[in-house]
Amino acid sequence: MQPKTQSSEERDYLLGMIDEQAAATFLGYTVRALQNWRHRGGGPQYVRVSGRSIRYRRCDLIKWAEARLCKHTSQPCVAA
């Protein structure tokens, strides 16, 4: 079985940058939660376009969420 290759549309979608509001909606959190994570650390990677302009790539949001997947409650599942 050959690995699935991404189309250019899929790649563009995953690498495309979205603003804070769209990123918060994508993850199911608030913009304030994203801001706190940026300040304190532990949140998804982001791009600082300027002093007041933050963007997220969907692939980074997915990667961050997948790093926190757990199979059971006794499993330490929060990535560092």
- Portion in beta strands: 5-15%
Strand line-up of the largest beta sheet = 1-3-2
Q: Which homologous superfamily in CATH is the superfamily?
A: Winged helix-like DNA-binding domain superfamily/Winged helix DNA-binding domain
Rg over C-alpha atoms, rounded to the nearest angstrom: 15 Å
Return residue spans where pLDDT drops below 50 for at least 5 consecutive residues: none
Estimate the mean pLDDT confidence: 89
Question: What shape does the CA trace take?
Answer: flat
CATH structural class: Mainly Alpha
What does this structure look like?
There is one protein chain. This protein is of the alpha+beta class and 80 residues long. It has a single domain (10-66), classed as Orthogonal Bundle (Arc Repressor Mutant, subunit A), CATH 1.10.10.10. The chain is 44% helix and 14% strand. The protein has four helices and three strands. The chain has a three-stranded antiparallel sheet. The chain is flat, with a radius of gyration of 15 Å. The termini are far apart.
